[in-house]
Specification:
The protein is of the alpha+beta class and 591 residues long. The protein has 4 domains: 190 residues, Histidine kinase-like ATPase, C-terminal domain (Heat Shock Protein 90); 119 residues, Ribosomal Protein S5, domain 2, CATH 3.30.230; 137 residues, formyl-coa transferase, domain 3 (2-Layer Sandwich), CATH 3.30.1540; 89 residues, 2-Layer Sandwich (Ribosomal Protein S8, Chain: A, domain 1), CATH 3.30.1370.100. It contains 17 helices and 25 strands. The strands form 6 sheets. Strands 1, 2, 3, 4, 5, 6, 7, 8 and 9 form a 9-stranded mixed beta sheet that branches. The chain has a 5-stranded mixed beta sheet with strand order 10-11-14-12-13, sandwiched between helices. The protein has a 4-stranded antiparallel beta sheet with strand order 19-20-21-25. It is elongated and about 95 Å long.
């Protein structure tokens, strides 16, 4: 069989299968052309699952000389040489979109160039052009697409339901609007106004428009020339999927697993399993340090230094989250005098299943009288807030300024401030404090270690023993010192003084299992936080454990030393709030 050059019609339909995989991709390509034309206003109308689309803009327009060339493959005004690919400032550059769309649809292009007093129109029926005709319109360009994929039945049958295709289009439009907050968008679905996003002064304002979130936070970081700016919601505003993690490189909407993982890493120990944050991140670097020409739809990019991009994205979010801006805090005082009380609480931590402990008298859980829990309160003049009659109220942080009322179900600390009543999960709160202490010790290399007179022995399989001993040096940084006692036994010679022995045994068993299961791909450094979380979980006060008023107050004071104390290391919320105004409404005391 001889080699033949494919007809132009076949070439264009092959290209259409890559560039216009579905209607949402087509709309993305056309709107990016509007961006490149300098448009500040764009209107999109779609129906029939995206098989009928109209897009109009107020951009620079297309001259009548260029209109016939606009649907030719590889015809573009964006680049002229290969070197331009490494210095791109435009969204488009391939010169394939209009040619691909014209090959598989009935396309109308009407445009008035900014230097022309007359507008012109051309129609293309599945690639066959009409004559250039004068018409009347404002400056800018209008593109009308009908009967998309009608001449390609094989492609048409792969389209999903109208609702599914419309959902994809809406997602693409949100991303495009996020990429350019300076552009006004009007979106009509089935001829009815669906979205109106006026131009915004900042990316944060546009994120608020698109995601409909009132409270958002910003962050910035730079790593080896890669800059990342992030707008994010608090860990309370979570989703069940990753759909609201928006990534942009050089202002292009992209899909990138590594950068998505960087966002998730930034929220580490703040989300529960199966939860995803809401965040938008814009990554920028020198054009020569990024390749945007690796996918027909330009939805993927390749960084010269992928590690720097990952670290920049992670740091742009984490640097803000670590300040816990969602909590109004006063000045915190590290090294609180409550440490001695708190540490004794850790060492004497027991479960109600261990009644032999003398730390607390579980037979009389109400030994702390109600009178000692409650201090006088009065309503202020407008009867909207409670105020305390405390002569020596602490000038501490968010948590330490709360008044401890008591304990509910031997599990939850009851406290209040001027605005609300708060229930605090004592185990989750204490777990975060101990976790942060361990992480701080790991980071600084300073940790109080207790040496065991006789090593604690742990029985494991041979391969698990070997896996632990291979990481003995890293474990020693946390104060965990191991020795090989036998083929299937390791001896624990020392451990952080902060922890209970039982916590170490279960944690090392879990760690050895993960080391073996994940093998060489297991990155020990990335598991330090998980290790600390597991240690903390087994070392702190439990649900069902009675605490004194002094211990509860001490715990709240210690929480103020760590900004992220509103979440346990596993992402569970530490507290629930009950606003006094809402309580008064619920009790019929106010309308």
């Amino acid at each position: 069989m001889s080699i033949e050059i494919l007809p132009l019609e076949v070439q264009n339909q092959i290209a259409a299968g890559e560039v216009v995989e579905r209607p949402a991709h087509m709309i993305k390509e056309l709107i990016e052309n509007s961006f490149d034309a300098g448009a500040t206003k764009i209107e999109v109308s779609y129906s029939e699952g995206g098989r009928r689309v109209t897009i109009s803009d107020n951009g620079g327009g297309i001259s009548p000389e260029d209109l016939p060339k606009s649907i030719l493959r590889y015809a573009t005004s964006k680049i002229t040489s290969t070197s331009d690919l490494w210095n791109l400032r435009s969204y488009g550059f391939r010169g394939e979109a209009l040619a691909s769309i014209a090959a598989v649809s009935k396309l109308k292009i009407r445009s008035r160039h900014k230097a022309q007093s007359q507008s012109f129109q051309m129609n293309f029926e599945f690639g066959r052009p009409s004559d250039l005709e004068p018409t009347q319109s404002d400056f800018g360009t209008l593109l009308g697409i009908e009967s998309l994929f009608e001449n390609v039945p094989a492609r048409l049958k792969f389209l999903k339901s109208e609702a599914a295709e419309h959902a994809q289009i809406k997602n693409a439009l949100k991303a495009l609007a996020l990429s350019r907050p300076d552009v006004e968008f009007r979106v009509l679905e089935n001829k009815e106004l669906l979205f109106y996003w006026p131009a915004c002064e900042s990316r944060k304002d546009r994120v608020q428009q698109i995601l409909n979130l009132k409270v958002l936070f910003e962050g910035f970081a730079e790593r080896e020339g890669v800059k990342a700016y992030a707008v994010m919601a608090s860990p309370d505003e979570v989703q069940k999927t990753s759909k609201n993690i928006w990534l942009f490189a050089q202002n292009r909407w992209i899909q990138d697993r590594s950068l998505q993982a960087a966002v998730m890493e930034a929220y580490r120990n703040l989300l529960m399993h199966g939860e995803f944050p809401q965040a938008a991140v814009w990554v920028e670097t020198d054009p020569q340090e990024i390749d945007v020409n690796i996918h027909p739809t330009k939805s993927q990019v390749k960084f010269r230094d992928a590690s720097a991009a990952f670290r920049a994205v992670q740091a742009s979010i984490r640097s803000t989250l670590e300040q816990a801006p969602w909590i109004v805090t006063a000045a915190m005082s590290p090294g609180s005098t409550s440490d001695s009380v708190l540490n004794s609480l850790i060492q004497n931590s027991v479960s109600v299943l261990e009644p032999q402990s003398q730390a607390f008298d579980f037979s009389t859980p109400t030994q702390y009288s109600q009178k000692s829990w409650i201090r006088p309160v009065v309503l202020n003049e407008n009867k909207q807030k409670y105020v305390y009659k405390e002569e020596n109220k602490r000038a501490g942080g968010y948590w330490s300024n709360m008044q401890v009322i008591g304990q509910v179900h031997l599990t939850y600390i009851v406290a209040q401030n001027a605005d609300k009543m708060i229930l605090i999960d004592q185990h989750a709160a204490h777990e975060r404090v101990v976790f942060e202490k361990l992480m701080s010790a790991w980071t600084s290399g300073k940790i109080d270690v207790q040496e065991f007179l006789f090593p604690l022995t742990i029985n494991l399989s041979g391969e698990r023993v070997e896996a632990l001993m291979n990481h003995e040096k890293e474990l020693r940084k946390m104060g965990v010192s191991l020795e090989l006692v036998g083929p299937s036994i390791v001896g624990l010679k020392s451990a952080p003084a902060l922890l209970k022995d039982s916590a170490l045994t279960s944690t090392l068993e879990k760690l050895s299992h993960e080391l073996v299961e994940l093998g060489g791909s297991y990155n020990f450094e990335n598991k330090i936080a998980d290790l600390c979380a597991s240690m903390a979980c087994h070392s702190v006060v439990r649900a069902g454990q009675a605490l004194s008023n002094e211990q509860m107050t001490s715990l709240l004071q210690s929480m103020d030393e760590y900004p992220l104390s509103s979440y346990c290391p596993h992402g569970r919320p530490v507290s629930l709030d009950f606003n006094f105004i809402q309580l008064e409404k619920d009790f019929g005391r106010r309308s």
